[in-house]
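[[Sequence with tokens]]
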Amino acid sequence: MEKERKKRSLSLGKLKKFIDFMKENDLCELEVEEDGKRIRMKKFPRPSLTESKEVFFTEKEKEEKKEEKKQKEGLREIKSPMVGTFYRAPNPGAKPFVEVDDEIKPGDVVCIIEAMKLMNEIKSEVSGKIVEILVENGEPVEYGQPLFLVKCN
């Protein structure tokens, strides 16, 4: 048991030496094989706290400015209430439910989202004019993804 403990402490000592070696030589990865044993160590750089805060605030500020601009222009998004496939018309040969510049009111069907082989009609909750269609026909959509921009009355 004493020998086993010495082997472990020797191994820990070697590990510490390897770690120091990595630091001294600015290595990100080190692999050593000795006596049929292989040791592989990796070091992943951590972003500094200030970097991650800057990125977070920048992204958050961008999103806030985008929302602010939309509100100033009186624009609202119609978002997907589910994951699925977006369809602009009830069937492939039919006329789309809405086009850009169409007036809509609450309860109007604006598209269909197919989820698990079920066709779900998506109805408007706002009244106004369709300014932009943000998704192409047949594209997959995520929950909460904006589908339409509407200029509210």
In short: The longest strand covers residues 109-115. The chain has a mean pLDDT of 83. The beta strands are 29-34, 37-42, 75-79, 84-87, 103-104, 109-115, 118-123, 128-133, 140-141, 146-152.
